[in-house]
Amino acid sequence: MGNPIEAEELYGKVETALSETRLDMASRSKLLHEALLFCALEGTKDEGQAFGNLFFRVDYLCKKHGVKMTDKVAIQEARRHGNSDEPPTEEDLRYDARAVCIFISAVTNVSVPHELRGLLPSNPKHHEPNSRKTRTQTRCIVHAVENGWIRATPDEQGGYYAVCLHDESRGVDNGYIAQLVKEGTQVNLLDCQVEDWRMKVAGEWCDKRVTPRLIVVEPDFPLDISSIATCFTEMGHHPLLYLLNQMKPRQTTQAILLGNFASEALDDVINSSQYRFEETLRENFLANAIDFCACEAFNPAEFKEQARQQAANLEATRDTLFHQHEKEKALLEPSFLCEALGLRGRVDLMTTDLQLLVEQKSGRNRNIERNMPNGHYGFHLTPHYVQLLLYYGVLRYNFHMPPGAIDIRLLYSRFPPKQGLLAVSYYQQLFLEAMAYRNQVVSELLDIAQGGFAQKLPRFNSDALNVAGKGNAFVLRYKIPEVESVTIPLQQASPLERAYFCRMVTSVIREEVMSKMGGQEGVAHCSADLWSMPLNEKREAGTIYTGLRVIEKTKSEGSKGYDTLTLSVPPQPEEDFAPNFRQGDMAWLYAYREGKTPDVRHSILYHCAIERIEMDRLVVHLRNGQQNPNVIGNGPFALEHADSSGGMGTQTQSLHLFLRSPKDKRDLLLGQRAPRKDETLSLSQSYDPRLDGILSQAKQARDYFLLMGPPGTGKTSRAMRFIVEEALKTGEKMLLMSYTNRAVDEICGMLADNGMPFLRVGNEYSCEERFRPYLFTAMARRHPKMAQVKQELIQAPIIVGTVASICGKPELLAIRHTDLAIIDEASQVLEPYLVGLLCQVGRFILIGDHKQLPAVTQQSPRDSVIANDEEGQLLRSIGLKDCRDSLFERLLRWEKQNGRKDFVGILRWQGRMHPEVADFPNRMFYAREKLEPVPCPHQKEPDLPYHEEANDALDRQLRYHRVLFIASKDCLEPQLSDKVNTDEARIVAEVAHRLRRFMGEGFNAKTSLGIIVPYRNQISLIRQRLEEKKLPELMDITIDTVERYQGSQRDVIIYSFTIQRQWQMNFLTANNFVEDGKLIDRKLNVALTRAREQTIITGNPHTLKGNSVFAQLMDYCKEKGGYLRSEDI
């Protein structure tokens, strides 16, 4: 059960904001915002729907609880003040407090305390009417639709808007929107005519009539521009074509390879003063060697000739373009996020002054070949015209560029510029049609997320999707077969297969919706946070660097542009700033004006990988280098996370590949046949008497084997190593994968240390430097001919990579047969990622521990659990209960349900934790597995290796107790976040200081000591307290969250619970489940199983005692004598 936020606590925040005048205004406003946010989160937690932002939550709750319009307006104004970077005035703060109290009272049904009421204004604030007659953009929430009108609440001062959908006199026809929106839909109204006009819509009075030129449905769901444009085909553009294209298998044709070459050639032609065709050809092959090897009908001579012609055309085009524009201002592949239009995209070429925009297409254009323009768009092909028009819209709404101010060109690089360099004029009708299509696609995806994909099946066929090409011979010959390659396998699937596919696609799309729009504001990250999260919250979450300055620009390769930037990192404005970035993370780097708030919506974005992170500097690698280093500028820059945009496509392609796989494989994964074993197979040698039985089972399993690997049991260093060694002896070709790059590095280390040959798929920036020579690209450089590369790939006994990198290269499995796939960290991988790939290999082994942290999802159990309807019963019959479960967990459950033991192994001997450290997690979490020490030498030692004299009670506890709990005291402070705990920061720093003394010369910051906290806010506070200890080596200790510590170990771990509010317990216990009647707390399990020698825990007993597991932990420590109070330190 969840722990509710109490009204008393919320009112307390309001009272503190009003009475603590010693606090600065920003801190007082933050308290009000927290009260509003926490109340809204509490009020909507059981509603069973996604709430993208606080605007929607507040509006929903005001309507649900009957808050009158004047008060609702005041509450939304308080929300806007809380989101602003500018603190409110004292007067505004008091009115905001009044509004927040009204909201709390309505949602919790608890009256405002008498003492607090006396601090509030007795009447609402008077507002002057807004007299603006036009508005470029207004965000609204839809409340009702009636006869061509929408009643909506604007995200600004005022009451309801009456939104006119059709006005012939102004050329406005948005009537189709009525079919796409419903109560709660958020829309952007663009280019609005606003009139004072009192009228009723759906039974409620509206104060203004608003006529927008354009309406954007759910703008926080940005779609990729090229993906929209691709759907404009000879068949028409049915909204389900977008999803069908996501499911299509990735193709590798010579035309696609030529397109990749042409894109790189454009970069090189722009970047090089003396262009060299052969160099582009070589580098393009090295970067795409796997694709070249996978192309079955590849003709090298023809490709080279076509590539040479493309390059020559590009050189001529460069001279033409930059006769009119300044080449020094050229930017390659800049990216944009447009919240106004709900779009995202990356342009091939533009200039920094926004005067030129070029999109390149390398393929055929029959209009140009025949010298016959079509009736509507000249020589341009429709999807390409659509793409350019949408880019134009982005520049207009992001940068307020007037019509005609941009030179937009469509470059068909197959042709010389006289034929292929086409000017693009703004064509409003097609632009509006493209935006209408964007809205329809978003509506379809949201409808699937809510009602399921199965409801779309009657329209998911070639006849329904072919809305415009019924009698078109080209469509019938080429397009219909493409569509049917996706739709027919679904039609031919068995009821169980169809139910599985539909439910998993629904889950994937739900996750996509959550990842873009957000489901738990302030709890989980979503891409809309880039523009909707206030700057102070981003800094608190560690998701933005600001004030960065470029101090060095270099080229990583001689012929390429400047692509490696070193940036200085100044002290960040947030005092307890703790960056939430890692080496290898993808990010947006963008400039902003000094003194202004960074905003991705109004900036040119550079897509980059973080190469190195230091306290005072960052090194990033741009996806596309720039010829002129001056176009990048020197700053200030901001850096934010770039969300992954490929998850939905990767997973739906995998699910469709599953449908197309052999029936034998489908039946296996859906429990329609039992896995097989071959008892005649035996090990070639004994590897370890304790493991030989498991290794023999794994070898005899002919379909799959599940290996449960609890912490410290050597699943990589021993079990995987021995399985791989045995498979090598029989000549099996292997694929080794893991969820994280850190775990892949660990696998590479195991292979390299034991002299086993392998190739790694991935990029160098997410790979340890010592393993970069094993990268596939490095191998291609050593063997730069296609026949050699293909031979190396086919003969490679082992290929290694993350699940994401391997799934992104499906052609690998087409080139090279894989006998055995081994997936480590399998409990962290959602099922749709794996099922397609696993059907393409001979057999597979999943290694994991479902009692540690699971796959990261944003769906609530309400959304992800399998229902008990007809479809749900089919799925539950194969052990599928919840779409948040990994395939590893489902198959474990399935094997147990069927009473089979031959296909499951458990590693019971752990060599990490001393038996005393392991005792509590063994009792609480691993009762079924019955873990035992190996024992390693440190596990046999009765005493801790501390020899310094104990001077007080804390010293004595640290010297003689391997598991110690230190009870912190209440220390809430109004000016500090609830996500910090000053007393525990003090305790952690003091304990670290004592441990440093005890460890003496043997102390190593990387291996001796680690600190785990639940919140990033606590990290910087602990670092500040450590700094006060004046021991530099303590500053190198890794302090991180439980999620980031999974898979790591230290000699000693200090864990700070941090929480002091009961409602925070929900965050700590979100991943719990019950096994054999025992509650398994996954997050606590990870924290308590990281230490080899000693675990020290600090927490507030008054808060923690409300949880049964935490209470047992404290009782356990008391019983063992390892319990101290804060006052004793």
Give the gist of this structure.
This protein is of the alpha/beta class. Among the domains are: 111 residues, Four Helix Bundle (Hemerythrin (Met), subunit A); 84 residues, OB fold (Dihydrolipoamide Acetyltransferase, E2P); 98 residues, no CATH class; 209 residues, P-loop containing nucleotide triphosphate hydrolases (Rossmann fold, 3-Layer(aba) Sandwich); 214 residues, 3-Layer(aba) Sandwich (Rossmann fold).
Task: Report on the architecture of this protein.
By secondary structure, this protein is an alpha/beta fold. Among the domains are: 111 residues, Four Helix Bundle (Hemerythrin (Met), subunit A), CATH 1.20.120; 84 residues, Beta Barrel (OB fold (Dihydrolipoamide Acetyltransferase, E2P)), CATH 2.40.50; 98 residues, no CATH class; 209 residues, Rossmann fold; 214 residues, 3-Layer(aba) Sandwich (Rossmann fold). It is built from 44 helices and 38 strands. Helix 2 runs parallel beside helix 5, helix 4 crosses helix 5 and helix 19 packs across helix 33. The mean pLDDT is 93.
